[in-house]
């Protein structure tokens, strides 16, 4: 069976794995592969055949001195250990990979170099061919295979994952062969696997692929995992040590080229570019603080309003409409006049208070509607693109990469920039034009004609929507300095070698399933890290642009937050379940799941992090003890602390009494009024939070065994939990402490049939179907309602004022007053302790710095504890659920004997070759008989809707009427309706064989398969 991704042919226990045919583009490449060697220093090293693998000898392979962290990593690789390298973008991780590859080749072993992107794989191939020689390097991606028997093969991580699964399947015809042994024999000549950009392990849609590779990797192979800066690289190294082989983690924050942060915005003088951070680099530039910016804009409004009020506009009108349009003109010169429309600012006469109307309006906007003021300020401070480009050119910040989240916007901005200005000389235009003509002659389909004019002006776009030939041209021209600005999506930050002096961040927000969120710190730093060319620049620059929604404070917030931890994204998808059960029994698959990175983080990783937190706390206590010895007046401080602790204990006891009293009062009210009963719930995280009230109806009590672990602290197991339906159509199980009031009389009751509907749905909720109503709030949990409960919830939305018979559930006045008084005592004592400590530290010299350090250590320990999560995830439960779905739909056949590997049926074979959010759904859609009857345009629309959310999903009735009957039958009421599939995306479409043997085939070939099948059917009908 010819399978892409299987590699060189080997015989394992009598089973022949056929050797795939290397796909060579043309005869010139084949000729180039013959007899071309690598760099002389490398050739000399390989001829020694591993006689000297010392760090000093390996370092001589490079024309530049290596840094300390690079030498350390090379030393451990030479000792046969696996290594995790965590370093900023541009720090020089590639040099470590090249050294590791050279060491493996000197030992007579092969190397597999994986990347997350096909574009990055193509570029790495070129770099490695330059270094090691074309004959030693090969490529294997979804688009092409080249010299796959080479000593170094570059491939995407998904290809390597599939190689490991397909290799294990070789043993299916020989049951006596151990699958792990089969895999190790198949990869026996591989000495090192490089997992570049391994932080993709935390990617929600693809992260599990990296975990599968590490778990399946034969133990004799060294792993070199290279990651951008993350918070917990030690966890990754510890997991690899446990599941694979001894692994050393090497961390560094060193950047060969320092990075400077800037912020660009529009002001009266044009585009201003200021340092984002203050001179210490630890705080926001004071000139960019929100308050300062708002006051500056308010001063302009006041100045403009005063001049208008003195005769240039009608009294009472506020010139807000002209504010955004003519702001620069009015600041730059004292030009009078204008239309005086009363647009976005509103009518000043509604502002209230004394003074001219314009002053009233400014006051109202500043203090009563600061959000509207902020939105207006953001809008008028957005810098025009042409002015930004000219400003950066004057600052000598080019070449630059301009990051934009949308592919379409990348192209549009490149075209727009090319029409606005030109940054290339006549000689550069001539060279670029010649390169374009050469590409047009070789690959005319790759040339983006609409972007040619922009390219000649020094602007380009770069994203996954371009064909490889065009992207390669852009990369080559940018590296030669012939392109000054590239508009690119975030994928360019994933290691593609396009070094720039400056990176430009156009937006800090991104769409997520939970709405607009700021980009993570790790993602922002990876984009920013492309700035600064080693050997060319003494400093790299990152310029964050003001936009309509985010400004300098949002940028500083992301930077200050620090790196996010690497988390497991190991999920039981259809593809994962099918891949595992194609080579493992159900019990072996369960053991595989338990070896995941997520399971490690919840067991050994948590133990290590707990020890780290305890060590930090112990160090903090030691520092505090030493500072108290140095401080004068220590006894008075100790007395104040003792008094504060006593007050805190008393307050805690009073709160517990108050809590118990409320629970007792709630029980009495519910027993007297009876159930079901309409109530008001207070959903807050603590008694100091602003109250959030929710009308609800209580239909019964929750069994005590279901909420034993959710009881509020300080009351033991005495608090009942009530089964409720909220007015927001959510089921609620809430402790009695959350009941604020209950409605008396018949109005407070409920029809028995409605109560039965709510109780029935409540009983049907799975134990894992509950989530906290607020973060950390275990005493009030919610679960979604359904259409039946929605009708009932609408009846709960009446205002409380229209139902006067409410009985409050509250504490006695005496106890409430006592709690309030004790809270004030504790607050006053806490303030006095802080004053006493400050006075003592001021008199103690350097003890204050020691205390500050101790506090930082304590905060860090609290952060570590807060990041820890308890309990095992339900991954295995989800796995079994997915397995049941696959069995029911005919994709999998699970034998009764648990020691027998399940059988993957044709639908499952097809599904596991796909990559998407729902592989089974995609397989069902693509294999539906109606697809074979589609016309060419219909098929294109169908595939486009599957591949991209940008394809309009709504099909007009006229289009449906013109469709073939088979397609109509399929699209109405079946899962392949284009109207519902526009949100799905796929990295790969179909596989090249009916057995779905290799994920990642070129979409062009796969569409051709569908077309061929459709043509055969049409010929059979005589069409």
Protein architecture, described:
There is one protein chain. 46% of the residues lie in helices and 14% in strands. With 1023 residues, it is an alpha/beta fold. It is globular and about 90 Å long. It contains 38 helices and 31 strands. It starts with 9 loop residues before the first strand and ends with a helix. The strands form seven sheets. Strands 6-5-7-4-8-9-3-10 form an eight-stranded mixed beta sheet, sandwiched between helices. Strands 25-26-23-22-21-20-24-27 form an eight-stranded antiparallel beta sheet. The longest helix is centred in the middle third of the chain and has 40 residues, at 634-673.
Defining key terms:
single chain, 1023 residues, alpha/beta, 8-stranded mixed beta sheet, 31 strands, 14% strand
Fold blueprint:
Blueprint: E1 10-12, E2 15-17, H1 27-33, H2 40-47, H3 55-59, H4 68-78, E3 82-86, H5 93-106, E4 110-115, H6 118-132, E5 137-140, E6 145-146, E7 152-156, H7 157-168, H8 179-186, E8 190-195, H9 207-216, E9 222-227, H10 233-243, E10 247-251, E11 259-267, E12 270-275, H11 290-312, H12 320-332, H13 357-368, H14 370-380, H15 385-394, E13 400-403, H16 407-420, H17 426-442, H18 452-456, E14 459-462, H19 468-479, E15 485-488, E16 502-505, E17 509-512, E18 515-518, H20 521-528, E19 540-545, H21 552-561, H22 574-581, H23 586-594, H24 597-602, H25 604-630, H26 634-673, E20 677-682, E21 693-701, E22 721-726, E23 730-735, E24 739-743, H27 752-764, E25 771-772, E26 780-784, H28 787-794, E27 806-808, H29 813-842, H30 847-867, H31 875-888, E28 892-893, E29 903-904, H32 906-912, E30 915-916, H33 919-926, H34 936-947, H35 957-962, H36 965-971, H37 978-981, E31 986-988, H38 1003-1021
Parallel strand pairs: 3-9, 3-10, 4-7, 4-8, 5-7, 8-9, 11-19, 13-15, 13-16, 14-15, 16-19
Antiparallel strand pairs: 1-2, 5-6, 11-12, 17-18, 20-21, 20-24, 21-22, 22-23, 23-26, 24-27, 25-26, 28-29, 30-31
């Amino acid at each position: 069976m010819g399978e892409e991704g299987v590699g060189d042919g080997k015989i394992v226990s009598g089973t022949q794995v056929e050797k795939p045919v290397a796909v060579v583009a043309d005869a010139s490449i084949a000729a180039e592969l013959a007899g071309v060697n690598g760099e002389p220093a490398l050739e000399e090293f390989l001829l020694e055949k591993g006689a000297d693998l010392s760090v000093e000898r390996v370092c001589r392979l490079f024309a530049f001195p290596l840094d300390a962290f690079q030498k350390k990593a090379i030393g451990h690789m030479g000792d046969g250990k696996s290594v995790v390298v965590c370093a900023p973008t541009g720090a020089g991780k590639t040099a470590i990979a090249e050294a590791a590859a050279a060491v493996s080749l000197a030992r007579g072993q092969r190397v597999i170099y994986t990347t997350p992107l096909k574009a990055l794989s193509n570029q790495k191939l070129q770099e490695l061919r330059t270094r090691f020689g074309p004959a030693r390097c090969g490529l294997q991606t979804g688009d092409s295979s080249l010299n796959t028997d080479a000593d170094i093969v570059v491939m995407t991580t998904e290809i390597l994952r599939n190689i490991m699964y397909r290799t294990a399947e070789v043993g299916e015809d020989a049951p006596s062969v151990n699958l792990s042994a089969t895999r190790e024999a198949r990869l026996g000549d591989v000495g090192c696997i490089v997992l570049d950009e391994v932080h993709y392990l935390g990617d929600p849609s693809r992260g599990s692929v990296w975990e599968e590779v590490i778990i399946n990797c034969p133990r004799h192979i060294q792993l070199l995992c290279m990651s951008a800066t993350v918070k917990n690289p030690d966890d990754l190294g510890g997991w690899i040590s446990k599941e694979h082989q001894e692994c050393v983690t090497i961390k560094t924050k060193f950047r060969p080229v320092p990075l400077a942060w800037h912020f660009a915005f529009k002001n009266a003088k044009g585009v201003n570019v200021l340092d984002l951070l203050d001179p210490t680099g630890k705080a926001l530039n004071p000139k960019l603080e929100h308050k300062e910016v708002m006051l500056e804009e308010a001063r302009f409004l006041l100045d403009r309003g005063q001049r208008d009020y003195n005769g240039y506009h009608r009294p009472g009108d506020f010139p807000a409409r002209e504010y955004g349009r003519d702001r620069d003109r009015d600041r730059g010169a004292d030009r009078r006049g204008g239309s005086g429309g009363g647009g976005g600012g509103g009518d000043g006469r509604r502002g209230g208070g004394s003074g001219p109307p314009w002053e009233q309006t400014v006051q109202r906007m500043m203090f009563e509607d600061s959000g509207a003021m902020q939105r207006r300020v953001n809008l008028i401070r957005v810098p025009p693109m042409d002015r930004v480009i000219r400003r950066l050119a004057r600052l000598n910040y080019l070449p630059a990469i301009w990051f934009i989240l949308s592919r379409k916007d990348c192209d549009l901005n490149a075209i727009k920039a090319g029409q606005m200005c030109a940054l290339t000389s006549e000689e550069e235009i001539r060279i670029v034009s010649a390169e374009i003509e050469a590409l047009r002659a070789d690959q005319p389909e790759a040339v983006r004609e609409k972007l040619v004019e922009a390219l000649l002006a020094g602007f380009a776009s770069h994203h996954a929507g371009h064909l490889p030939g065009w992207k390669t041209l852009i990369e080559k021209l940018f590296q030669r300095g012939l392109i000054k600005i590239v508009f690119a999506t975030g994928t360019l930050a994933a290691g593609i070698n396009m070094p720039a002096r400056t990176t430009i961040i156009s937006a800090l927000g991104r769409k997520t399933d939970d709405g607009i969120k700021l980009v993570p710190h790790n993602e922002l730093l990876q984009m920013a890290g492309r700035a600064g060319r080693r050997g060319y620049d003494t400093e790299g620059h990152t310029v964050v642009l003001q936009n309509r929604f985010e400004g300098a404070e949002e940028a500083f917030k992301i930077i200050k937050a620090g790196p996010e931890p690497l988390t497991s994204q190991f999920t039981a998808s259809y593809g994962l379940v099918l891949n595992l059960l194609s080579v493992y029994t159900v019990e072996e698959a369960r053991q595989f799941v338990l070896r995941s990175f997520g399971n490690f983080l919840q067991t050994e990783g948590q133990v290590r992090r707990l020890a780290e937190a305890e060590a930090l706390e112990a160090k903090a206590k030691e520092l505090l003890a030493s500072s108290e010895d140095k401080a004068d007046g220590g006894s008075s401080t100790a007395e104040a602390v003792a008094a504060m602790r006593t007050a805190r204990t008393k307050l805690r006891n009073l709160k517990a009494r108050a809590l118990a009293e409320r629970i007792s009062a709630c029980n009495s009210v519910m027993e007297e009024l009876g159930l079901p009963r309409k109530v008001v719930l207070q959903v807050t995280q603590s008694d100091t939070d602003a109250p959030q009230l929710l009308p609800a109806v209580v239909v019964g009590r929750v069994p005590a065994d279901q909420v034993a672990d959710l009881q509020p602290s300080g009351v033991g197991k005495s608090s009942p939990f009530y089964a409720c339906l909220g007015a927001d159509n959510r089921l609620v199980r809430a402790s009695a402490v959350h009941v604020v009031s209950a409605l008396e009389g018949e109005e407070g009751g409920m029809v028995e049939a409605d109560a039965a509907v709510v109780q029935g749905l409540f009983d049907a909720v799975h134990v894992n179907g509950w989530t906290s109503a607020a973060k950390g709030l275990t005493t009030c949990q919610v679960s979604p309602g359904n259409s039946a409960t929605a009708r009932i919830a609408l009846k709960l939305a009446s205002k409380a004022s229209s139902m006067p018979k409410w009985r409050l559930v509250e504490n006695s006045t005496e106890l409430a007053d006592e709690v309030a008084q004790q809270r004030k005592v504790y607050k006053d004592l806490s303030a006095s302790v802080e004053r006493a400590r400050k006075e003592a530290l001021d008199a103690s010299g350097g003890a204050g710095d020691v205390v500050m350090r101790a506090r930082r250590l304590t905060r860090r320990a609290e952060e570590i504890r807060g990041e820890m999560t308890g309990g095992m995830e339900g991954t295995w439960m989800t796995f079994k659920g997915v397995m049941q779905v696959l069995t029911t739909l005919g994709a999998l056949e699970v034998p009764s004997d648990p020691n027998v590997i399940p059988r993957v049926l044709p639908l499952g074979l097809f599904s596991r070759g796909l990559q998407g959010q729902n592989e089974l759904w995609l397989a069902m859609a693509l294999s539906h008989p109606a697809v074979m009857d589609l016309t060419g345009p219909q098929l294109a629309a169908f595939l486009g809707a599957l591949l991209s959310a940008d394809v309009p999903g709504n099909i007009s009735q006229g289009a449906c009427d013109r469709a073939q009957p088979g397609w109509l039958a399929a699209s109405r009421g079946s899962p392949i309706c284009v109207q519902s599939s526009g949100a799905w995306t796929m990295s790969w479409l179909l596989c090249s064989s009916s057995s779905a043997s290799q994920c990642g085939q070129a979409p062009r070939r796969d569409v051709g398969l569908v077309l061929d099948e459709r043509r055969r059917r049409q010929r059979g009908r005589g069409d």
